[in-house]
Amino acid sequence: MTATTGHVVIVGAGLSGLSTAEALRAGAHPGPITLIGGEADLPYDRPPLSKEVLRGERQSTALRMADWFAEQGITLLTGTTVAGIDPDSGTVDLPGRRLTADMIVLATGGTPRRLPGGVNTLPTGHPALHELRTVADCRRLTDALRPGTKLAVIGAGLIGAEAAASAVARGCHVDLIDPNELPLAAAIGPEAATLLHRRHAAHGVTTHQAGVEHIHAADNDTVRIVLSTGDTIAADALLVGIGITADTALAEAAGLAVDNGILVDSRQRTSHPRVMAVGDASRRHGPDGPLPRVEHWDHALRSGQTAAATILDTPEQPPRAPWFWSDRYDIHLEMVGHLDPRAQSAIRLHTDDELSIFYLRDGRCIGAVTVNQPLDARAAQRLIDQHIPVTADQLTDPAVSLRQLVRGR
User: Fold this and answer.
1) Which of 7, 52, 109, 219 is the most exposed place for a label (fewest CB within 10 A)?
2) Which residue range or ranges hold the Reductase C-terminal domain (predicted)?
């Protein structure tokens, strides 16, 4: 079974779970929908946590208010932990009761990776130790970031770098630690990664290309971080931002196929016909094996919509190039499509701080990275999705209108 008009239980109330529920109702699903979230908050948007919320510019990132769920006939259970699922019977076990579902959608997301115990010797709950995944994490970190606070950030990926920039805006002194010479180069290419990483020094952040050998508690609830270079950093607060691990515990216990994520097909169906998976926890299985797991906002939104279309037995969405963005300091970065270092690259330079790098194969754009050029990103999305022929000379020439290229002129 896949399509159903019956009860759909969605485990996980993040963006992917909410988008599944929303798309089901938009598609006139007639049956009950139950959305279960482990956090006490209403479903919320995560990307602003490391940016506007951490800077104190925004308080709420709720995606929908409580009355919306009532209007849509969606039962929202917050602060609720799911103990287990039984795909064969369709049961979902909650504290003190059991739900029966015709379809279960796992939108369980991920949990922050933690440093190994041999490196991090801080006791559980040490006041200086932070991660940034939930609203509660953000509130706690925000309270710690007062002007003059010494913050150490381990991991210069998207979250770590954004949090470092937000801490600078709050008047903190920041040490940013990453073993890679050029963080994010594999994801966004060396040109954009160089520009972004240099911004840290320009805003007073001290960057360290090093691993972490040891973290131990110091006086007055501070910490000391010993680096592989032999240097030692003293910090009032420590943020560990080294990625997430897919939360597959429920899927594994239920006997579903799991491999660094819950394996799904192109319609978000798992190895059991009564269970689907969406968002960060899901991993697409292609014809040649599992594809890389995707953790971006756009994937969470679209995978939920795809799952809903499968349940509604409606056609699959037209394919669209993946997309993500990041903001730090005065830089707005967007990545569209796929970065292939073997592909031909074409750099469209607007100013020193505004550029776009396009990647081409066989006369078609397959990916683009834009810095402070959102219109170029929109054009790249259409060039990729519509398979429009284009040359490197056209893309590098600022006199050539990308809008006209998209329109085929």
Assistant:
1) 219
2) 323-406
